[in-house]
Structure formats: C-alpha cells, structure tokens
Automatic annotation (TrEMBL):
The chain crosses the membrane at residues 20-43, 63-80, 116-133, 145-166, 178-199, 219-236, 242-259, 271-294, 306-325, 337-354, 360-379. This is NnrS family protein. It comes from Ectopseudomonas khazarica. The keyword Transmembrane helix applies. The keyword Calcium does not apply. Pfam families: NnrS. Keywords: Membrane, Transmembrane, Transmembrane helix.
C-alpha cells in the first residue's frame, strides 16, 4: 500500500505535489506584478486601470488577500502534513484550489458581474480553511486550532472589505484591509514563534533549544486579534491615546522574543538574519501605531506599511527561501542572489516608511527586485522533483 501511494505521488508533476510549490512561485510573481502596476498608476505612467471600486480598492484587497493569503495557503497546506502525519493536498485537488486563486486574481480585470468577483474571492479562502480544518480536526491537533481561528477571522475581514467594495463604502474597505494586516501579523507571530528559534538553533549548530514562553505567545495572539478587531470596528482608525498601551505591549513582547532568539552568529547566515530583521518590523510597526495614537506620528499608514512591507513582505520572502530549500531536499544554502533580495526588501520597507512620496517608486523597485530574484532563482527548484527522490 505504501509503495502504491509513493508511485501515485511520483506520478504527479512536481509543481503539484505539495501546496508550497505553486503558491510560493505564483505568489512571488504576483507580488512583483501587483506592486509594479500599483507604482505605475501612482506615478501616472499608465492610465488608471478600470477595476471594480478603482485601483485603490484593488490594491487594498489584493496585497493581504491575493498575495499574502496565497503564501499562507502554500505554507500551511504543506506544514499540516508534517503536523498531522497525513498526506497534504496534491494533484488535481491542489490544481483546482490554485486555479480558483488565479481566477480570483484575474476576475478584477475582466468584465464579470460583481457577484462573480466576490464569489471567487470568498470561495478560495473558504475552501482553503475547510481543507485546513478537515485535516487538523480529524487529527485532533488542538494546539493548532488558534491558526484556524485566525484564518476564520481573516475570512471575515475579507468579507468586510468586499462588502465595502459592493456598497462603494471606502470606510468598510479600509477597516477590513487594515484588520486583515494585523491578523496576518498574528499568523506571522504564531508561525515565526515556532520556526525562527528552531531555524536559528539548527542554522548555528546550537545543541540546546530556546526555552518556550507560552504566556508570551498567548499574549501576542490575544493582543494582535484585539488590534484587528479594533480596526474592523472602525474604533481603532481614530487616534485613541489609551490604545498606545496595547501597541507598546505588543512591541515589548516582540522585542523580548528577538532578544531571547538573538545570537551573534546569525549575521553570517542570510537565511537567519533575514528572518530576524523581518520580525523586527513587527516591533517597529507596533511602536509606530503607538506613536500615531499618541499624536507623535502624522500618518497611521506609515506604521501600516512597516507592517505590510517590512514584516509581511520580509518574513514571507525569508520563509519562502528557507522552506523551499528544505522541502525540495536541498542543502540549506540559498543562491547568493538571495542575500541581495533580503537586503532589498528591507531597504524597500525603510524607503516606504521613512522617505517622502517622491521615493515611492524606489521602494516599489526594491520590492519588485527582491521578489524577482526569488522567482528567478527558485522557479527551477519548485518545478522539479526533490533531489532526494522523496515524493514531496
């Protein structure tokens, strides 16, 4: 029976054997194209593209729900196999789910009824969550139920954003998109809290594991969900000095994690310093929100983009680079160009947050080059079989 299962797995084209392959590659290419188009529109280099609700609505929706959700799906659909010991999504079911994601991206640019556009978006996230729930619940993986909770809340935020699109309500769109960013931060914190110390330990040959701190993990989960709910309600979109306490608390917890995980040797290993630097943007984003609520920062969007570009973009790029090597049976030595990609994504985040609007094009260029380097260097790995002959 095991021999038959192995033969069936090897009969599937490598790109469709596990979720990380297609979703990482397509998500990276989409990140490059989407920000390039948005930058061209902002610079007036191309005419405004006719999409439902306008290009701002498209940008708000597609970065968390098109780009980030694709990478999250690729990672979790692969990780759940290790967590449960049961086969992950592959072959035709994976192709169907990926096709739904792709159709949802293309639907913005073809003349379809608004109901079809909205239906495609919600169908993808709904089927993805259903697959995750089926595997985790059947295996009684209660320690991973918080991930299901955050995914469900993320789907509700997408529904809120799409309701704003359908009603032409800019406030609803903004509330849904910003709440989604903080939920993605929660996922980055949950997953990063597991893998960054583990990767650091393994990458530096450290014999002892980092000590766990469950109360900090739970506090970050609750605090991040609260920040998302405050944004979704609209209350958090107005400066409230008392809310600075929440974000200072989140920043402190992220800082404690970084301090505990830090070892001087990380700076010799691009796969490690990229993760630590990207995680530091979670701290900076939280501090930025605290400063805005206190009236010390002129725009909340500066903190939001520290979260979106630095933390979300940076951690996604670093995680894809590390996970793709491990799951394709390759040595944990990324192509040399990836050190430049990691530097570029951090430079892009710094420019987006600290430089004026005249430099947005350069921030977008840094982002695009970072994901282009990943796509060019990792596409052959993701499209070919594992080096060790494993069917994954």
């Amino acid at each position: 029976m095991q021999l038959l299962d192995r033969k069936q797995a090897l009969a599937v084209l490598p790109l469709w054997r596990l979720g990380f392959r297609a979703f990482f590659l397509a998500g990276a290419v989409f990140a490059l194209l989407a920000i390039a188009l948005w930058a061209l529109v902002l610079q007036g280099a191309v005419s405004l593209v006719a999409v439902p609700g306008g290009m701002l609505a498209w940008h708000r929706h597609e970065m968390p729900f098109g780009f980030a959700l694709a990478i999250i799906a690729g990672f979790l659909l692969t990780a759940v196999q290790n967590w449960t010991g049961r086969p992950g999504l592959s072959g035709r079911p994976l192709i169907a789910l990926f096709g739904l994601w792709l159709a949802a991206r293309l639907a913005w640019f073809v003349p379809v009824p608004p109901g079809v556009l909205i239906g495609l978006q919600l169908a993808f996230v709904g089927l993805f969550i259903a697959q995750m729930a089926r595997q985790l619940i059947s295996a009684r993986q209660r320690n991973n139920y918080p991930i299901l909770l955050v995914l469900a809340l993320l789907a509700l935020c997408q529904s809120l954003t799409l309701a704003g699109l359908a009603q032409g309500d800019d406030d609803l769109q903004r509330r849904g998109a910003l709440a989604a960013l903080w939920l993605i931060a929660v996922l980055l914190s949950l997953i990063g809290g597991r893998v960054i110390p583990f990767f650091t330990q393994r990458g530096l040959g450290r014999s002892e594991a980092f000590a766990p701190h469950p109360w900090q993990d739970r506090a970050l989960l609750l605090g991040g969900v609260l920040a998302a709910l405050l944004n979704a309600s609209g209350y958090g979109l107005q400066a409230q000095p008392w809310l600075a306490t929440l974000f200072v608390g989140l920043a402190t917890l992220h800082g404690l994690r970084l301090w505990r995980w830090y070892l001087p040797g990380i700076w010799r290993v691009p796969l490690l310093w990229s993760l630590h630097l990207a995680y530091a943007w979670l701290l900076l984003a939280a501090l930025g929100m605290a400063a805005w609520h206190l009236g010390w920062l002129p725009q909340a969007s500066l903190a939001s983009h520290a979260l979106a570009v630095g933390a979300m973009g940076g951690l996604i790029l670093a995680m894809m680079a590390r996970v793709s090597l491990g799951h394709t049976g390759r040595p944990l030595q990324p192509p040399r160009a990836m050190a430049w990609a990691f530097a570029l994504i951090n430079l892009g985040a710094l420019l987006r947050v600290a430089a004026g609007s005249d430099w947005l094009w350069l921030a977008a260029l840094c982002w695009g080059m970072a994901f282009a380097l990943f796509s060019l260097n990792y596409a052959p790995m993701l499209c070919r079989a594992r080096l060790d002959g494993h069917p994954g």
